[in-house]
Design goal:
Layout lengths: L2 H30 L3 H12 L12 H21 L3 H4 L3 H27 L3 H10 L5 H11 L2 E2 L3 H11 L1 H16 L6 H32 L6 H19 L4 H13 L6 H26 L2 H4 L3 H23 L7 H9 L5 H13 L4 H20 L2 H7 L3 E2 L12 E7 L21 E7 L2 E3 L12 E7 L3 H9 L1
Helix pairs in contact: 1-2, 1-7, 1-13, 2-13, 3-12, 3-13, 3-17, 5-6, 5-8, 5-9, 5-15, 6-9, 9-17, 10-11, 10-12, 11-12, 15-16, 15-18, 17-18
Length: about 475
């Protein structure tokens, strides 16, 4: 057996152990109410050169590449599970938080760190930009673990903000890194570049998402297992094309997920679950990789500095950014306070902290350790108290069991397709059923089937549909003609 084969086998064993550790960590996080992020990072640190695993790893370039690739899949999965009809009601609030909110957070943290640490303006603002974006995965893992529901439109607002504020933080980090290396660089071209990146990124993402929905519905693949491959191609394609033409690839990926997820397509549920699994895999890989980069012995000297920056971020910068960004909204003060409190930091700041290190900004290695400390403090302090804060502020809704879902009158109807039915010859996915309707069964030639989105309807078919009673008559006219 060759040395290469032996090394490959060891890599497989190590990879399996780390993935198993990540899965067990997510299980523990659910029971303890601690975001899995903390346990993933801890696992990486334990596996690192100063932990029991003893794996030597200090390649910031490789960590940045891994972080960038995994973020693309995580953002796509988040967008795919987000409906446009839901987020459009909070669109301007989410955009305000993801742009103005990130900018204000950068400025406030930058001013504070200049005063606390004596950094130059560019370096202080760079540190502020790195920690400016939030992490929804950490927030909702805590909410699901504790069974906390939110009232009003808080959930879609938090989803939209966290899914769309990464591009702004990424742009500011790259721009300020360039200024740190060359202080004579002009600001105005950077502003124009940002506007162009956002516009192109959003346009490419929406175009790819809509186009892929038509492709998925029309290609009619012989093997169902190829549909996930098709959507993986979408993620890589939209990210690559947006980057090549100068658009923001992260915004493009998220927009593609939202555009596709807001349309009907075959194997919808299976594909959403597939990408949810991919997102978990990417999170485990990214967090463990970033944990490997951390040397615990280097954290202690900056502990007080990291704690000071964390407290400024949580209690000063984030509240100022939220309240000013939502100044003209009709949200109550309690709702704004809750949005402020759930601004958890996650993987993105740690990935962004590798950018100035790989670019060669002097002293940026200390930034990485400070940011790591800030993320851990934010997740532990805010993450473990989110359910309590939601109840204390009165924004927690009733449990699912208490929501009275059975109070809506339901009906199960059977529809018969005659030769003149307007849906004969169309695929199930093309039926424009109301949101309340669910196609349960297809009866054809004496046999019953569970229809797929790609199933083509024929004359003589019978459809068993569950819907609200007051939608039944309209549904009959729509299907039977």
């Amino acid at each position: 057996m060759t040395l290469a084969v032996i090394q490959l086998e060891r890599m497989f064993v190590l990879g399996a152990a780390l993935l198993l550790l990540g899965v067990l960590a997510s299980k523990m996080s659910t029971k303890l109410g601690i975001p899995a992020l903390v346990l993933f990072l801890a696992g990486g640190m334990l596996a690192g050169s100063e932990g029991i695993g003893g794996i030597p790893f200090d390649d910031f370039d490789l960590a940045r590449v891994i972080g960038t690739a995994t973020l693309a899949f995580i953002l796509f999965a988040g967008g795919l599970d987000t409906s446009w009809s839901t987020i459009r009601r909070v669109l301007w609030k989410g955009v305000s938080l993801s742009t103005l909110g990130v900018l204000l957070t950068t400025i406030v943290v930058g001013v504070a760190t200049r005063l606390l640490l004596g950094l130059g303006w560019i370096e202080a603002l760079l540190l502020g930009a790195i920690v400016a974006s939030t992490d929804a995965a950490a927030v909702f893992s805590v909410l699901r673990a504790r069974g906390v529901q939110l009232r009003g439109r808080l959930t879609p607002l938090l989803e939209l903000e966290s899914g769309s504020n990464d591009p702004m933080a990424i742009f500011l980090t790259f721009a300020l890194t360039s200024l740190a290396l060359d202080p004579t660089s002009a600001w105005l071209p950077l502003v124009w570049d940002f506007a162009l990146q956002m516009t192109l990124g959003a346009a490419v993402g929406v175009a790819f998402g809509i186009g892929w929905s038509y492709l998925i519905n029309r290609i009619r693949l012989e093997y169902d297992g190829l549909y996930p491959v098709l959507t993986l191609a979408l993620v890589m394609g939209v990210f690559g094309v947006a980057s090549v033409i100068g658009g923001n690839a992260f915004l493009a990926t998220y927009a593609a997920g939202v555009a596709l997820g807001s349309r009907k397509f075959v194997h919808r549920l299976a594909l959403i679950q597939f990408h949810d699994g991919i997102a978990w895999l990417m999170q485990i890989a990214m967090f463990i990789t970033l944990g490997l980069l951390v040397f615990p012995s280097q954290l202690m000297p900056i502990a007080w500095t990291g704690l000071a920056v964390s407290l400024v971020l949580v209690f000063i910068a984030r509240p100022i950014a939220v309240f000013l960004s939502l100044l003209f909204s009709r949200m109550s003060g309690r709702e704004k306070a809750f949005v402020s409190w759930v601004g958890l930091r996650g993987a993105v700041p740690i990935v962004l902290a590798t950018i100035p290190v790989t670019a060669g900004v002097p002293g940026s290695t200390a930034f990485f350790n400070i940011v790591f400390f800030v993320v851990v403090v934010s997740v532990v302090l805010q993450g473990m108290t989110i359910p309590w804060v939601a109840r204390a502020l009165g924004v927690a809704g009733p449990d699912v069991e208490e929501m009275g879902e059975t109070k809506v009158p339901q009906a199960t109807i059977e529809l018969s397709l005659g030769p003149n039915s307007p849906v004969v010859g169309r695929m199930v996915v093309d039926l424009k059923l109301p949101p309340s309707a669910m196609l349960l069964l297809l009866r054809r030639e004496g046999e019953s089937y569970i229809p797929r989105g790609s199933t083509v309807l024929k004359s003589g078919d019978g459809l068993l549909v569950a819907t609200r009673k007051h939608d039944a008559d309209d549904l009959k006219r729509q299907i039977e003609g």
